[in-house]
Design goal:
about 375 residues; single chain; 4-stranded antiparallel beta sheet; rod-shaped; 7 helices
């Protein structure tokens, strides 16, 4: 049966870590003739089903892992003697399947071998084991989704929000987590569809081969497993729709908050521009006043230049050190004490210039210290920001 090779390849080296293309149900029938036993019909079927298990690995954010089980069943029926022989091969059985196989073997030894019903019991053993834990894994994913979906429902949006303290931080990482859950749910939906196809095919085969009333009971079990699979598919579909709604709501909130931040920045920029305009007008007024004061000082300086020589001359002539002789020609007579005036004038000039130089040097050193201190402060602030 060529399909068995595809089944075996599913457990070999994967071309991709997420390779799940293998799966489904395949069946082939043939009739052969044996000279001793007569005609013999042979039916071979194989399928690959998916299931989930708790892996028990520490350090993993997801405690569940998705696994697969392969089943090969060869059924040979000797038409003349109505003898049936079944051969089963189970690839990669889970711990649950192994425990149930052990119990099934003990029950077969106690009640005796009945090949007409053994094959369906083995099928039920495998199919029930791979079906029962999907609901727990989907519930786990739903809990993860609910923790994120509550955020946009209780988050405050805008300045007029009335939610008060019931605010939740929403970030882009929430959309990433929702997308991760969505990808897992899409994979689960595909796997449940594979299992559903297998369950339907096994139920059709059981309905055609098993006698009543035992066959009806086992078919009812298969219908229950099929109904459980369909139910979990519906749960996944509903959860996907809810997830899409929450993702859209989170994106809308993030877009709204981004727009609100842009508007706030725009208002702040406008206010700063108004303040800058006010400062410009103030500086223009100060510059105008400074220019007017400069013109006034210029006028006063010119007047001082005009009157200062005359004032100096009148002061000098008004002193007792100079005597004006009004005879013809006019003569100036300097007193002997004139040298005292000259010496005092030079000494006071030197003293005044020295005090001015000392004051100017001290003022410039204070300015250098202030500029150096401000530079160090800016350097420290830049280091803190880095």
């Amino acid at each position: 049966m060529p399909r068995v090779l595809d089944l075996l390849r599913a457990f070999g080296k994967k071309t991709n870590f997420r390779d799940e293309s293998a799966g489904g149900y395949h069946e082939e029938s043939s009739v052969s003739h044996d000279e001793d036993l007569g005609d013999k019909s042979c039916t071979e079927l194989c399928y690959l089903v998916k299931h989930t298990e708790l892996h028990g690995r520490s350090g993993s954010h997801d405690p569940w892992s998705i696994r697969q089980v392969g089943v090969y069943h060869k059924q040979e029926l000797h038409i003349s003697s109505n003898q049936q022989q079944d051969t089963f091969i189970i690839l990669n059985p889970s711990e649950t399947i192994l425990h149930r196989l052990k119990a099934f073997k003990e029950s077969i030894q106690q009640r005796g071998k009945d090949s007409t019903e053994t094959w369906i019991e083995l099928q039920l053993l495998v199919l029930s084991s791979v079906t029962e834990k999907w609901k727990w894994y989907i519930s786990y994913l739903e809990d993860k989704f609910l923790k994120i979906s509550q955020k946009p429902l209780l988050a405050s949006v805008g300045e007029n929000s009335t939610l008060g303290k019931s605010d939740f931080a929403i970030c882009f990482a929430d959309t990433q987590h929702l997308q991760e859950i969505r990808d897992i749910l899409l994979r689960i939906s595909f796997m449940l569809e594979i299992n559903h196809v297998v369950l339907s095919a096994i139920m059709r085969k059981a309905s055609s081969q098993l006698p009543s009333p035992g066959g009806n009971g086992r078919c009812n079990i298969l219908r229950a497993l099929e109904a459980e699979t369909v139910l979990q598919q519906k749960r996944v579909e509903t959860l996907l729709r809810r997830l899409d709604g929450s993702s859209t709501l989170i994106r809308n909130i993030l877009d709204f908050r981004g727009l609100d931040a842009l508007q706030t920045n725009s208002r702040t920029t406008t206010e700063l521009s108004i303040l800058a305009q006010d400062d410009n007008r103030m500086m223009t007024g100060l510059a105008y006043k400074s220019r007017r004061d400069a013109k006034t000082l210029k006028v006063l300086t010119i007047l001082a230049l005009i009157y200062l020589p005359a004032s100096f001359a009148s002061t000098l002539l008004g002193m007792n050190y100079i005597h004006v002789d009004s005879s013809n020609p006019v003569k100036l007579h300097f007193a002997r004490e004139m040298w005292i005036f000259a010496v005092l004038t030079v000494v006071l000039l030197v003293l005044t210039m020295a005090v001015w130089k000392l004051w100017e040097r001290r003022y410039s050193s204070d300015e250098d210290l202030e500029s150096a201190g401000s530079g160090v402060g800016k350097h420290i602030n830049l280091k803190k920001q880095e």
